[in-house]
Amino acid sequence: MECNRHYAPRIVAFGPHMLGPVLLKFGSDQQKNEILPRILSGEDWWAQGYSEPGAGFDLASLKTRAERDGDHYVINGQKTWTTLGQHANKIFCLVRTKQDGKPQEGISFLLMNIDLPGIEVRPIRLIDGGHEVNEVFFSDVRVPVANLVGEENKGWTVAKYLLTHERTNIAGVGISMQALEEVKALTRSVRRRGCPLIEDPLFAVRIARVETDLEAMKITNFRMLYTAQKQGQPGPETSILKIKGTIIN
């Protein structure tokens, strides 16, 4: 039996949507007044400039440099895996503003237009031929010091705050639950030994296990959101959502 399935595209870009809470926590009054309304209205699409070649899991080893020149920073370096950066008009980046000491102590968080002179966005073609992620190159890019979020060399604190918020969504519970419903609908029409596949005992047990895990994930997600509402930010346990969500997906 042939089965043709059509999926609507799903665009997921968590980090850029978390810039709002970051600005509320660390941003200047000017940054809040200028940027937050444009995030809310959708006028600005923010890309996230965190990962670099050789600085993914070990993000603190990033090498993109921002050197102070009067009331500007001059940026040189590269970011990679920039999700949907080809559609963005803005980008926030982690940059190195201090070379000595602990790596985490020399990082700053900067905001900038992605069409500034010296910024080049190049596509990374995935195995399916799609273009979702990008490389972003910076060559003597000048960014006003006023675009610094928080304190210079304290960007690691800002970055961690953003990631704890991002991870409350990263498990993709809603998407997984929708996909499970699609699988269940399909297996009602696929037959094995004359019966719908969903009535097969072994297959039904597998579906039940996934459904149970997703319900547990949903409750955990609600707990994280409640913690964020009560304490002002989620706790480090949000990393559980990333690990477990990846396993379920």
Radius of gyration: 21 Å
C-alpha end-to-end distance:
26 Å
Structural class: alpha+beta
- Order of the strands making up the biggest sheet: 1-4-5-8
Reading off the top of the CATH hierarchy, the class of the largest domain is best stated as: Mainly Beta
What is the mean pLDDT? 85
Q: Which term fits the overall shape? A: elongated
Helix content: 25-40%
User: How many individual β-strands?
Assistant: 10
Q: Output the CATH homologous superfamily of the largest domain.
A: Butyryl-CoA Dehydrogenase, subunit A, domain 2
Number of domains: 2
What's the main sheet like? 4 strands, mixed
What is the string of helix and strand elements?
A: HHHEEEEEEEEHHEEHH
CATH topology of the largest domain: Butyryl-CoA Dehydrogenase, subunit A, domain 2
What is the CATH architecture annotation of the largest domain? Beta Barrel
Strand content: 15-25%
Per-chain topology:
Blueprint: H1 14-17, H2 19-26, H3 29-41, E1 46-49, E2 65-69, E3 72-79, E4 90-96, E5 107-113, E6 119-125, E7 131-144, E8 148-149, H4 155-166, H5 173-189, E9 191-192, E10 195-196, H6 201-231, H7 239-248
Parallel strand pairs: 1-4
Antiparallel strand pairs: 2-3, 3-7, 4-5, 5-8, 6-7, 9-10
